[in-house]
Fold this protein.
Amino acid sequence: MKIGVVCYPTFGGSGVVATELGHALSDRGHDIHFITYKQPVRLNVLQANIHFHEVHVPDYPLFQYQPYALALSSKLVKVVKEHQLELLHVHYAIPHAYAAYMAQKMLNDQGIHIPFVTTLHGTDITLVGSHPFYKDAVAFSINHSNVVTSVSESLKADTLRLFDIKKDIKVIYNFIDADYYRHREKPCEREKIANKSEKVITHISNFRPPKRIIDVIKTFEVIQKKCPAKLMMIGDGQNRAAAQAYCKKQGLKDKVVFLGKSNDIDRILCFSDLFLLPSEQESFGLAALEAMIHKVPVISSNVGGLPEVNREGQSGYLLDVGDYQGMAEKGLKILLNPEIHQQFKQAAFELALNFDIKKIVPQYEAVYQKAILTQTY
Ligand code: GMT
């Protein structure tokens, strides 16, 4: 099948999911065309059947805001025609589903009929999409998608609660490639980061306010008083400066390492002992799943889709948002007892296998077939 994929090309989970899904589909013989404003960070353009088309939005002084959705829809029309695409898969409703709808209508006018699938990822629904400024346009684009998927049951429920949705929403979970982790070489360079007596605790996010990175530091602060440890902070964003200032004020500077945006997540997770994700909102929590496949137990908040990924008392623990004291206590319970730690590590790994890409890609392929078969003109 020839498929056009639209996503955000940044480090965010939705872009990662779109890219990894594209790679997996191309392995299965599909021709995948990424259409976005920048090459997605994890995209391997050298892989067979993978193509990248850049959307240009030239600066024009008349506009205070450059019309990206307009440029994207025109580019979609062009790429669909040039490469005879059969389907568009847009990740993130805003503004991608809206642009896909417009492209579909423009193509209809030219006698070309193409369905589009919209995958909802979280912030497009909960944090941004439901804002009155966007709500009608988001609901319209979801209702006019040929098929809609969401990355968790929790996000599906949120979508139905926040919008007037007339479409069925199919839950297809985010995924990891278990084979990749089984077969890759593991040059664990733990000694570069911590000494033998220290535990390594890790957090990965875009450091936006909903990630509550000060809670990450506070949880670590309590843990390291009873258990020698280092904290790896991977990512960058709005709250980084405040977090660094807090570390300095509390005398934690030498124990907390801010690594910035990194493509070396696997190398760091491979020697991590615990992962912290105390978010205020999380539709799925892909970073937690990536930790789990590396056998890293997870201490998270109990919001959104996190309970569908991180299992209480098995792969880790889930606590109320803001309860950093409780998170530290549960973290210590795991870290201070090697036997318990080992049990959690193994359970985290086994639970992560439920989200193996091999189980997920066929679900997307079935959705694509459904979109093609059920589209009406
Ligand atoms: O979490 C973010 O701020 C990034 C955001 C995105 O759009 O990339 O992540 C969302 O999509 C991910 C992939 O489906 C999910 O794992 C994240 O839980 C979700 N974030 C939120 O719901 C806040």
Remarks:
- Residues 12-14, 17, 92, 121-123, 151, 174, 206, 208, 210, 281-286 surround GMT (CB under 6 Å).
